[in-house]
Design a protein that fits this description.
This protein is an alpha/beta fold and 436 residues long. The protein is built from 16 helices and 13 strands. The strands form four sheets. It has a four-stranded mixed β-sheet, with helices on both faces. A four-stranded antiparallel β-sheet has the order 6-9-11-7. The chain is globular. The protein binds uracil and calcium ion. Homodimer.
Length: 436
């Protein structure tokens, strides 16, 4: 087989065989195929697309390119969840204990934040003592014993995806549905999930800005799941504003605890109940979505899910007392209100701009090795549909540096992330569609 022939075939819009796709991915991972040939191949895929079978073959080839988690020693259906990227997306911290409390084993590998998006692993590290690195044996044993563990991605998982994603980033080939779908699904398959619930964000703050494209991406991923025998469903959700109120590591842990105490923001609570119900249903613990929904709602409101979070934190060496006293989490030295300049109704909140602002505050990393400040961030006091009077607080900055020029810059950036209009604005739709 010659790489150039495979590139030519895709250039001429012909489907590739399983063997040809394996050849490309194995060759690229090992270094036998150079970047310039993979660049040409990726551009050919960008223009000519892939069939459902090619996309599934590509996903499997990437999933096999490195280590794969073996969760077979854990009884039950392991259901994983993935979000296509969010700002202030606190859901994993809530869903992991919620779904585990329903008896669905959660063996979760999560990432760190980069750029304007946060990562679950950084958030968990804002809990004093919490260990995000466990050995394979410790990880499996903890899931067997208490039904849940959340660790950082370790070892050499999906190296093909890492390399290809880096290449796509600099060759204008990121925005290809088969390439995005296979990239996301390969990581889920390598981490051992039997079934997958996808939260595909749509809108301004999302990777996919239009509902149409979001549904196409969701369909491509659900189709991959079907082709490779892992039941997959996708929920298309709103990203015209950040989810919940808190953006920042310790602030989001606090928000997760409040949500598990039944006092969380309405949108975050509802999204967790919807995603959690789908996970419980796929995990075989309910016969219907309605039954699953009743189960997770009960577990959220009767304290069982919070108790499971406490158990999870304790098992991984963290200070479990924060589940009763979230005020013991790291707090920033200064709380600075951002005030509305005139009266109006919020029509949009630019999630990406707030993600960048939180990063500048120190909550996130511009590059992979930057240190982060776990205590800082932004808390929204107004969301889309809310009105504000002139001088009313629309957001609160949690800062460890109150130098006037810095404070002014961060305040301006936060204020300009809000769009105000006159008159009423409807609360945004949270769930747009379910793709199965
Ligand atoms: N997220 C991924 O993991 N991969 C992509 O290609 C795009 C978004
Ligand atoms: Ca949040």
């Amino acid at each position: 087989m010659r790489t150039v022939d495979i590139i030519q075939k895709k250039r001429d819009a012909q489907p590739l065989t399983t063997e040809e796709i394996d050849f490309i991915i194995e060759g690229y991972t090992s270094g036998a195929i150079p970047d310039y040939q993979l660049s040409a191949w990726a551009m050919a895929v960008y223009f000519n697309g892939m069939t459902a079978k090619e996309t599934a073959d590509l996903t499997m080839a990437m999933a096999r390119s490195g280590d794969q988690a073996d969760l077979s020693s854990i009884p039950g259906i392991k259901v994983d969840k993935h979000s296509t990227g969010g700002v202030g997306d606190t859901t994993t911290l809530i869903l992991a204990p919620l779904v585990a409390a329903a008896g669905v084993p959660v063996a979760k590998m999560s990432g760190r934040g980069l750029g304007h998006t946060g990562g679950t692993i950084d958030k968990l590290e804002s809990i004093e003592g919490f260990q995000v690195e466990l050995t394979k044996q410790q990880f499996l044993r903890q899931v067997q014993e208490i039904g849940v563990a959340v660790i950082g991605q370790s070892g050499n998982m999906t190296p093909a995806d890492k390399k290809l994603y880096g290449l796509r980033d600099v060759t204008a080939t990121v925005e290809s549905i088969p390439l995005i779908a296979s990239s996301i699904m390969s990581k889920k398959l390598a981490s051992g999930a039997d079934a997958i619930v996808l939260d595909v964000k749509t809108g301004n703050g999302a990777f996919m800005k239009s509902l149409d494209d979001s549904i196409k991406l969701a369909q491509a991923m659900v189709e991959i799941g079907e082709q490779v025998g892992r039941e997959t469903i996708a929920v298309i959700t709103n990203m015209e504003e950040p989810l919940g109120e808190a953006i920042g590591n310790a602030l989001e842990v606090r928000e997760a605890i409040e949500t598990l105490q039944g006092k969380g923001p309405a949108d975050l609570t509802e999204l967790c109940l919807v995603l959690g119900a789908h996970m419980v249903q796929l995990g075989g613990k309910a016969a219907s979505y309605e039954q699953a929904r009743a189960i997770v709602s009960e577990l959220l409101h009767d304290g069982s899910a919070l108790a499971k979070l406490k158990q999870l934190i304790g098992a991984q060496g963290g200070d479990a007392g924060i589940t009763e006293h979230p005020e013991l989490l790291a707090t920033a030295a200064y709380q600075v209100p951002v005030l509305a300049e005139e009266e109006g109704t919020v029509s949009q909140i630019d999630a990406e701009a707030l993600g960048v602002t939180a990063m500048l505050l120190g909550a996130g990393r511009a590059t992979k090795d930057d240190p982060i400040d776990l205590a800082v961030g932004i808390v929204l006091r107004k969301k889309v549909g809310d009105t504000a009077q002139a001088g009313e607080t629309i957001a609160e900055l949690h800062m460890n540096n109150n130098e006037p020029m810095f404070t002014e810059d961060i305040t301006q950036r936060t204020r300009s992330a809000f769009t105000f209009v006159q008159g009423e604005v409807a609360k945004p739709t949270l769930i747009y569609a379910i793709v199965t």
